[in-house]
Structures are given as C-alpha cells and as structure tokens.
C-alpha cells in the first residue's frame, strides 16, 4: 500500500472516529431519530409532508427557450451562440491541438472520441422520446391493467429498476414545474437527423429538413398545457448514477463523456418505461434533461433528495452525481413523500461548489432569493442565484461541452458506503468541521485521466452500487 493511501486510510479512520464522537454528542432524541432500531434505519432520512423548499408568492412557469442550452441556438449576444464566430471555441481548439500533436491532458484523441460517442443515444433518444406516447394494449386485451395505487407504484418502480434506474420515486405532477413552452428538444431533433442517417443507414433528408439558424431563432412551440393533457398528473422520477471515478477526473473529456453517457442511458430507460406503461394501457410522456419541465423539483417532490447551492439535486446515495429523467403518466400511482436531509443548512456552511466553480456562476453568499435574478431562472422558489449563461460560456469557451466541478467538489459526492452515508447524515450538524475534513482528507484532488483508462475493466462501474 502506498504511503499516501496509508495516510488517507489513517485519516479516514480518525475522521470516522470524530464523526462517531459527534454522533454521541447529539441529544438523545436526535440520536434516536438518526440511529433508530439499527444501522439500516439509521441511514434513512425522515419522510415529511411538505417538500423542503420555500415557495414565495406565485411560481413562474419557465419558458425553455430561455434555458442556457436553448440560448446556444438563438441568442446571438452569447459567446456560446452556436452559429456565431465564437461558437464551440474549445471544441475546435481541442481538434486543432490533437491535429498538431499538442493535446491538453484529458483532451487527446482517445478522450475526445469517448466524449463524442457517448452522446449518441442522447441525441437519437431526445428525437424519439419527446412527445406523448399513446397506450398500446397487446391484441386480445381491451382494458388497462388495474390495481391499487400502492401496487401500481411498486410495479412501475420495479419496472424502472429493471430498465436501469439507480433510484426511483413517484409524485403528483405540480404543473408549476412544467415549462410554459418547450424549445431545446426541437434543436436536438434537428441535430439528431445526421446521426440517424449514420446509424440506421437512412437516406439523407428522409426525416425531414434540418432547421436553419434563422428558423431556430423563430421556433415557437405550442403551450405545454396544450401538449400535455391535464389527466397526466402522476410522475415516475428516476435518477441515473454517474461514475464516481470519471468525476474524479474533473475538467477532462472522460468526465464529460460520463455526463453524456448518463444522458444517453436515461433515454434508454425512459423509452422502455414509457412503452411498459403503454402496454399496461396508459399514456406516457417520457422526459429527460430537456423537459417538458424541470426535473429537479419533481425529484424533490418524489423524495429523491433536496436541491443544493449548486442548483443540483443532492441525493442520499449519490449526492449530486445523478442525471434526472422519468415519465409523466395518467396511470394512477401512489405518490411518495419528500425527505428532509438538511441540505440547505449544510450548504450554508459549505460553499465548496462556489469556491471551485471556474466561472463564478454559483453564489458565494448565503442570501437565497425567490426572484429571477438571471434570465435563465424562474421566480417563486427560494434558492441560491445561479448564472447559467456564465456557466455555459465557460463550458464552450474552455471545456468543450460540460464541466463537473460543482459535482466533483461537493462533499455529498461520495461512493455509496455506509461510512459516507453516515457522514452525509451528520453534515448539517458537523457543518464547517466536515468541510475542513473534506479538504484534509484530499477527496477533492483530481486524478489523472490515464489512470481512469488503466482500470481493470471487469471491476469497473457501477462500483458504488455494489457496495
Ligand atoms: S458546471 Fe462548472 S462552471 Fe458550471 S456552475 Fe458547475 S462548476 Fe461552475
Ligand atoms: S458543495 Fe457544499 S454548498 Fe455546494 S451543493 Fe454541495 S454541499 Fe451544498
């Protein structure tokens, strides 16, 4: 064992001792709540009746056209406007560096190929999974499958796990979380047409014309309320885990590739789940990162976690290292209750995501607000302001198409071990002590990309779900 590992192991056991000591300092009531009857219940969070976010006044329905990704297709004032002179700067720089034999570490030919291929199903799936899927009963069946809402919830959750969900929950659809209008996915559809041509050997043009930049600017979708029937009021929300080791290689193509692999994988999951629901006799609208609404508040409502300072879902098992997707349906399903993890309290003392954000997009102070501070945010829910355009500009100007620092540096981003889950439970109580421990233990030191490629393939991902 290397000297560094021995030191880290020693520090970890010391830290665990400290954590357990802190556990003993809790009041008997709090400790009982935390420990319960044994180790298993100790690591469950309490279910609560009210979701752990604060709504102030009316909630604004967000127009997806204003999302930073959507703006890349129409907003000429942004450096990341795709068809402008600066569009995709970092991507073109990377190609040039490879061609001249001077690639940056983590951005060589092999790394770039992994990233570019990882988005395949993302593009093709976004093309296919962005509309209402009508019920399709097998021949001979005339009635939808009926059961109790409780059993229906159990059934769809098992189906979601069967199709690869890392976590799954259910909730009633709060239409405040739906976009007013969709936009982004229409662009993915047009981008996907070339890939369809390649993958399925189709004649170019068979799928219809590709939108011009001018047409993209003018694109106007119908109101989501006219697209999504009112009876579609239940949501199955799923999370796809992203590889911990890939996210240890922050600011590299391997990390970006993992982001897009998860986006691709969620399309696999939601299309299969939507089809399952159709065969059961119900309507399904699969959704991924492009909507028709905001996945994170739906995930909070479904008891999958809370939103952090970084604007991401913080999940009990995977922290912010999850991609959110799911299916909206009219199948009667029992909703889950939200959970209370105390994330907001810990975020107030932590701030590591803001400290390590290379673009300065995450707020460093503790003033959360329900106002729409930036054009990319909606109003009504109290949260830390987040400048998504600044973030997206950093990606496209410096890091090809993504960045994972706000996932990598978050103390909730840990392998799924009992020790780390215990530490997450203690986080709101330990506060700044845990932040100091996080730095001292060296969890945040990024690893080199070559060591990711050199891992034993047969012991690889999803490692954390095995623990
Ligand atoms: S993705 Fe990177 S640039 Fe964007 S908010 Fe997170 S850390 Fe900052
Ligand atoms: S890094 Fe810290 S402040 Fe940021 S989301 Fe994670 S816990 Fe909250």
TrEMBL record:
Database matches in SUPFAM superfamilies: 4Fe-4S ferredoxins (SSF54862)
Cofactors demanded by this protein: corrinoid
Coarse class of the protein's main subcellular location: membrane
Classification via PANTHER family: IRON-SULFUR CLUSTER-BINDING PROTEIN, IRON-SULFUR CLUSTER-BINDING PROTEIN-RELATED
PROSITE patterns assigned to the protein according to its UniProt record, in alphabetical order: 4FE4S_FER_1, 4FE4S_FER_2, TAT
Subcellular location per the Swiss-Prot or TrEMBL entry: Cell membrane
Organism superkingdom: Bacteria
Keywords: 4Fe-4S, Cell membrane, Iron, Iron-sulfur, Membrane, Metal-binding, Repeat, Signal
Record keyword DNA-binding present: no
InterPro entries listed in its UniProt record: 4Fe4S_Fe-S-bd (IPR017896), 4Fe4S_Fe_S_CS (IPR017900), RDH (IPR012832), TAT_signal (IPR006311)
4Fe-4S ferredoxin-type domain ranges (all copies): 337-367
Organism ancestry: Bacteria, Bacillati, Bacillota, Clostridia, Eubacteriales
Protein name according to UniProt: Dehalogenase
């Amino acid at each position: 064992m290397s000297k560094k590992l021995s030191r880290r192991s020693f520090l970890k056991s010391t830290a665990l001792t400290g954590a357990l000591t802190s556990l003993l300092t809790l009041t008997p009531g709090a400790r009982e709540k935390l420990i319960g009857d044994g180790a298993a219940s100790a690591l469950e969070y309490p279910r609560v009746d009210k979701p752990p976010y604060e709504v102030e006044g009316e909630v604004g329905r967000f127009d997806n056209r204003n999302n930073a990704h959507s703006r890349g297709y129409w907003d000429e004032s942004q450096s990341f406007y795709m068809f402008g002179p600066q569009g995709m700067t970092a991507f073109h720089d990377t190609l040039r560096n490879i061609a001249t034999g001077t690639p940056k570490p983590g951005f060589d030919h092999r790394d770039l190929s992994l990233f570019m291929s990882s988005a395949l199903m993302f593009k093709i799936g976004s093309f296919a999974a962005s509309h209402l899927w009508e019920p399709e009963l097998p021949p001979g069946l005339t009635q939808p499958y009926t059961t109790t809402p409780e059993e229906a919830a159990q059934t769809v959750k098992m189906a979601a796990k069967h199709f690869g969900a890392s976590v799954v929950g259910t909730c009633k659809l709060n239409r405040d979380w739906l976009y007013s209008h969709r936009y982004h996915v229409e662009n993915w559809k047009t981008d996907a047409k070339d890939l369809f041509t390649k993958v399925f050997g189709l004649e170019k043009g068979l799928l219809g014309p590709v939108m011009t930049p001018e047409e993209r600017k003018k694109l106007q979708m119908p109101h989501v309320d006219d697209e999504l029937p009112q009876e579609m009021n239940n949501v199955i929300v799923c999370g796809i885990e992203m590889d911990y080791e890939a996210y240890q290689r922050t600011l590299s193509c391997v990390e970006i590739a993992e982001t897009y692999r998860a986006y691709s994988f969620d399309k696999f999951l939601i299309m299969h789940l939507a089809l399952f629901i159709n065969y059961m006799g119900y309507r399904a609208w699969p959704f991924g990162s492009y909507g028709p609404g905001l996945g994170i508040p739906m995930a909070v409502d479904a008891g999958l976690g809370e939103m952090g300072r970084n604007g991401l879902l913080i999940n009990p098992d995977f922290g912010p290292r999850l991609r959110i997707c799911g299916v909206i349906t009219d199948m009667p399903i029992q909703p889950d209750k939200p959970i209370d993890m105390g994330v907001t309290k810990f975020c107030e003392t932590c701030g590591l995501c803001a400290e390590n954000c290379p673009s300065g997009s995450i707020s460093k102070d503790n003033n959360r607000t329900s106002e729409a501070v930036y054009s990319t945010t909606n109003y009504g829910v109290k949260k830390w302001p987040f400048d998504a355009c600044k973030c997206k500009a950093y990606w496209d100007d410096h890091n090809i198409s993504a960045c994972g620092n706000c996932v990598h540096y978050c103390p909730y981003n840990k392998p799924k071990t009992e020790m780390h889950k215990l530490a997450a439970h203690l986080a709101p109580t330990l506060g700044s002590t845990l932040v100091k421990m996080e730095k001292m233990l060296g969890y945040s030191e990024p690893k080199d990309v070559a060591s990711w490629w050199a891992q034993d393939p047969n012991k690889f991902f999803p490692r954390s779900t095995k623990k």
